[in-house]
């Protein structure tokens, strides 16, 4: 009898703990670029879209959603790991409303960057506009939940930022405007300033739990390897060094902001090392190819170049680190999300 009581007490205590875990982070609110855009670009007049097959072929129902992946993206897996919901909807998707967004929403836009000039390259949503959408969302949620409950949700929700790669690969190194105005070091500082001010604005709007992502080893993306074809298609070390330097500066800014903004729970998440491990030793993670992508030839295709008309797309994306020439596969996204949840986000659970 005593044993049964102990077991009963254990299960009752376990059930009591579940709501507490869920309440720790009631929603995930996302800002950024294609790494975390679940389909906002579907509603934008831009050539940078992915709402067609074979994108999404491994998503629920095999449907393309606008995610730049064969399936889910990292924020979807993070949301699931935190016991919120299995996928985060795009704010501009007309299929969803404020009730759906109450537990998670993404304002991200593929192709955007910290720098307004980056969003102009492919006519996507600028970073500052994502903040305007967030303000609009706050007003809607206050009407939906009531002012006090909504404000509490803003303070308890996890605000996640993933952005910056496009500023360098799509803007700085391609067009002469920014490179003639700034050295790489100066441009990094310029972007860090924008990132810091964005976090300050989130803080003013009630955000208290914020995670900002660093840059990946962007010199190892298949597209960049292709541009380096005459040198053996190796990773471009210059780009990777820029990413590492930027991440160090971003970590410094995070440290300063934590001292400046009382009560903020701010951390930096860096995908650099974990993704580099996968690239350097793919077989250890169950991959066969980390140099080329699954979609198309794997060297340069992305967006409309990666469609059903391309006969070269692989049959099993799980063998590849990258889905298209710029974005990870669902399997890679799941592994990166698992790493972030167990390290950076552990203190939020």
Explained architecture:
This protein is α/β, with parallel strands linked by helices and 349 residues long. It has a single domain (25-223, 236-273, 330-347), classed as 3-Layer(aba) Sandwich (Rossmann fold). It has helices spanning 2-24, 74-81, 98-101, 116-121, 127-145, 147-156, 165-172, 176-181, 184-204, 222-227, 237-260, 272-280, 330-342, and strands spanning 28-32, 104-106, 158-162, 209-213, 265-269, 289-293, 320-322. It has a five-stranded parallel β-sheet. α2 packs across α13 (330-342), α5 (127-145) crosses α6 (147-156) and α9 runs parallel beside α11. The chain starts with a helix and ends in a 7-residue tail after the last helix.
Provide a brief overview of the structure.
InterPro entries: GDSL, GDSL_lipolytic_enzyme, SGNH_hydro_sf, SGNH_plant_lipase-like. The chain has 13 helices and seven strands.
């Amino acid at each position: 009898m005593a044993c049964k009581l102990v077991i009963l007490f254990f299960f009752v205590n376990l059930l009591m703990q579940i709501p507490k875990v869920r309440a720790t982070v009631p929603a995930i609110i996302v800002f950024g670029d294609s790494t975390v855009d679940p389909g906002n670009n579907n509603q934008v007049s831009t050539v940078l879209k992915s709402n067609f097959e074979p994108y999404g072929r491994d998503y629920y129902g095999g449907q393309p959603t606008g995610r730049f992946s064969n399936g889910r993206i990292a924020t979807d897996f993070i949301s699931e790991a935190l016991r919120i919901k299995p996928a985060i909807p795009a704010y501009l998707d007309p299929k969803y409303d404020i009730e759906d967004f109450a537990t998670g929403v993404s304002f991200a836009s593929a192709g955007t960057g910290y720098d307004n000039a980056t969003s102009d390259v492919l006519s996507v949503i600028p970073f500052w506009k994502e903040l305007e959408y967030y303000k609009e969302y706050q007003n809607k949620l206050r009407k939906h939940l009531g002012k006090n409950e909504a404000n509490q949700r803003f303070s308890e929700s996890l605000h996640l930022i993933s952005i910056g790669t496009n500023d360098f690969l799509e803007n700085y190194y391609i067009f002469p405007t920014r490179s003639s105005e700034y050295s790489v070091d100066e441009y990094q500082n310029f972007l860090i300033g924008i990132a810091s001010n964005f976090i300050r604005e989130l803080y003013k709007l009630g955000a208290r739990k914020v995670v900002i992502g660093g840059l990946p080893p962007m010199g190892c993306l298949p597209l960049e390897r292709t541009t380096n074809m005459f040198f053996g298609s190796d990773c471009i070390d210059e780009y990777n060094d820029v990413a590492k330097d930027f991440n160090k500066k971003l970590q410094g800014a995070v440290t300063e902001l934590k001292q400046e903004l009382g009560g903020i729970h701010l951390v930096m998440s860096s995908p650099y090392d974990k993704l580099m491990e996968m690239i350097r030793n793919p077989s250890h993670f169950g991959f066969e190819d980390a140099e080329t992508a699954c979609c198309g030839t794997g060297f340069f295709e992305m967006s409309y170049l990666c469609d059903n008309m391309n006969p070269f797309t692989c049959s099993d994306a799980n063998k590849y680190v990258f889905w298209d020439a710029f974005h990870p596969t669902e399997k890679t996204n799941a592994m990166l999300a698992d790493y972030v949840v167990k390290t950076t986000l552990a203190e939020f659970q």
